[in-house]
Amino acid sequence: MKNKRVLVVDNEPQRRDSLQRLLRERHIETLAAATCEEALQLLTGDQVDLVLTETELPGKSGHYLLNQVKERRPEIEVILLTHNASSYNLLQALRNNAYDFILRPIDTGEILFSALERAFTQIDRRRQNADLLKELEKDNRSLRRTLKMMTALNASIERLTAATDIEELFMELLSSAMSELQASRGFVALFDRTSGKLGLKVSKGIPPELCRKYSASLPDGLTLALARRGKPVAIPANLPEKLAALAAPGETENLLAAPGLLAAPLLLKERVAGIVVISGHQNSQGYGDHELNFLIQLSRHAALALAKVGIIYQLKREKALVP
Q1: For 58, which DSSP code?
Q2: Where a domain ends, among 109, 130, 151?
Q3: For the whole model, what pTM was predicted?
């Protein structure tokens, strides 16, 4: 019965102190009140597991206290103590959901401690059930989120597959990712195979003049470092200091939005051809594994579609050269 707190309510100091001593011998933490009003005031600010109250109190009775506790804090159990074992008293206790009803005098306290042990067991079981329900609700939310993303991913893949133009393909990739992941900024950047420089190809949420400025070459900063690394990255909220230190002047203000960042490489025949980056999530959950996996899958299918578009382009070019 450790780590439990009981509020003892009795207007007679000697009887109240005696009861508190009994409880402390069993390592039960106690609070004390002399009236119903004082007890209700304590319950507004203190953590209490159980109320142990005399039925006959000055002013409002223990039955009234029971009623108020169950109305305000239904998770708290209440045991009534009384000298009056009338059927009316017992009926009132049952109607108001008292956990138990104990007749005085309390000598050794065996009956009391038996009732307390049963009450604490019920309290613990109820809390465990509440925790399990919370965990189940969390799992269900995660499952619903996953199913929603899978549906969105399938629809996005269909649109990517239908694209016949590189710019159209990348814009579809970016639009799908930003819409589903609720990002405020995003861009796709590709490495130039001749110069090796990373240039911005399509973007959303970034001023057009910056897109033109960085179309040939992005500054040597965070985006370039992430692209060269060639691995997916998920940052739930603000950039860690080490990553923020890599950013080029103005990069975090102009190209990236806070909070959060997701980046996935674009791989063509196991070669890193570029990177897709989205940032600035609009929800309270932030970016996590679900969001990163969505972007990775979308980027992989975009790379496959890009290869197909490249083949189509090459065939058209060869056909045009045939006399």
Answers
A1: S
A2: 130
A3: 0.58
